[in-house]
Amino acid sequence: MLKREGTRRGKKRHSRLPLLAQAGPVSLWMILFVTIPMLFIIYISFMTRGTFGGVEYVFSTDSYQTLLDVVYFKVIAKSFQVAVVTTVLCLLVGYPFAYYIARKPPEVASRLIMLIMIPFWTNSLMRLNAWMLLFQANGPVNHALMALGLTAEPIKFIYTDWLVMLGLITNMLPFAVLPMYSSIEKLQKSMLEASADLGAKPSVTFLRVTLPLTFPGIFSAIILTFIPALGIYTVTDMLGGGKVLYIGNIIKNQFGAIRNWPLGAALSVLLLAITALLIFIYMRFAKLEDMEVV
Length: 294
What we know:
Layout: H1 2-45, E1 48-49, E2 55-56, H2 62-66, H3 70-102, H4 106-117, H5 124-135, H6 140-147, H7 161-185, H8 189-197, H9 202-213, H10 215-231, H11 234-240, H12 247-255, H13 261-293
Antiparallel strand pairs: 1-2
Helix pairs in contact: 1-13, 3-7, 3-10, 5-11, 7-10, 7-11, 8-9, 10-13, 12-13
Protein name: ABC transporter permease
Organism: Lawsonibacter hominis
Pfam families: BPD_transp_1
């Protein structure tokens, strides 16, 4: 009996070795390059800004109190508003596009997905500069508007919230289309046929069958779109010209020119908290979906 128990334990240990070999490097990578930096950012957010910038390791909550200041509160609220509008527009544009691709044959769908990804094979700065050239005062868009008689003089597009939002939508749209396409592709046609056989109109089938069954993909698209849109600063720097400030721009400035690292860390912790909240909601929703399926 002792020999059998010993062999069983040996087999269990032997079976765990491949799992440890696979999970070990990934876990080490996550600890060294994700967990420790995040904990350090949280730690820095409770420290004091030095006289000439940087950090003095004296406990303080001044950075979090500063976030409640009217100026910073307005920037945070504006960032949330823009991120929400960007996410909603990406969903409204991306869902029909994802549905159209998912209903095509596999070879056609793969080509359409490739068309979505081709712009991202180029440098993001090139794409943003292209928007600047298109919408500048003597650019093609203003020339077309004046040629059609829609305006008598060039319209100021660049360095405005409107152009920044356009840049955000075009940058975030693929991150909304791909998860929704994956969810719609798995939708069983028999469910739609059953709804039609029971006399449901196409609109009712969409609202009662298609939309609920593809909601996990929609929520994934919300996470993948909202979080980057809230914290990205390259788009606002290029298309906003420093006149349009969001959370990402303030974080970059605090860690860069202003050198107020605790405040920059506090803003980063705010973004981390939002990310954690969205992931928590998604995990809870996934568990509810599993319970309903069972």
